[in-house]
Amino acid sequence: MKGYVGDPEATSTTLDPDGWLRTGDLCYIDEEGFLFVVDRLKELIKYKGYQVAPAELEQLLHSHPEIADAAVIPYPDEEAGQVPMAFVVKQPQSRINERGVMDFVAKQVAPYKKVRRVEFVSAIPKSPAGKELRKMVPIPFPSSKM
Which of 7, 17, 86, 144 is the most buried (most CB within 10 A)? Predict the structure, then answer.
């Protein structure tokens, strides 16, 4: 793509000076040259100047044997800006609690990526393709206590 016809402003916001297309995706290339799409930049959680990818935390939560499903969203926080909040569907007969979820994640990620709030739900909204619809998760009203 060379740009938008007659729209240099749209071209400059979409293409960088080297000709790379800004897709809004967060990606990385591994040692073997494979490209991996991690998440959408618009969906990143901004925690105290750090950027946290919800998909990374969701993948980690899905690896827990007592968690059937999970979605992570940004939750408003006066001090941090946003904090990672996990919505978790428990496996049948699971006894995991909020602290157990937070500790499980905290042991495996950098401190700024820790899940700070947990809410247990019966289901996570999904697209027809099976992707978590984070924008459709019912967000509880922010409170001053955590």
Answer: 86
CB 72 within 8 A of CB 85: yes
Q: Which of 145, 78, 68, 146 is nearest to 114 (CA)?
A: 146
pLDDT at 146: 46
Domain boundaries of the chain, sorted by first residue: 8-37, 44-136
Secondary structure (DSSP) of 124-145: --B-TTS-B-GGGS-PPPP-S-
Nearest C-alpha neighbor of 69 from the set 80, 78, 61, 81: 61
pLDDT of residue 86: 97
The angle subtended at Cα 86 by Cα 84 and Cα 87, nearest 5°, is 150
CATH 3.30.300.30 fits domain 44-136: yes
Q: Please, what's the largest Cα pairwise distance for the chain? A: 61
Can you tell me whether residue 86 is helix, strand or coil? strand
Reading phi first (left if > 0) and then psi (alpha if -120 to 50, else beta), residue 48 is in left
Residues of the chain with pLDDT under 70: 24, 38-42, 133, 138-146
Residue spans of alpha helices (H) in 15-95: 54-62
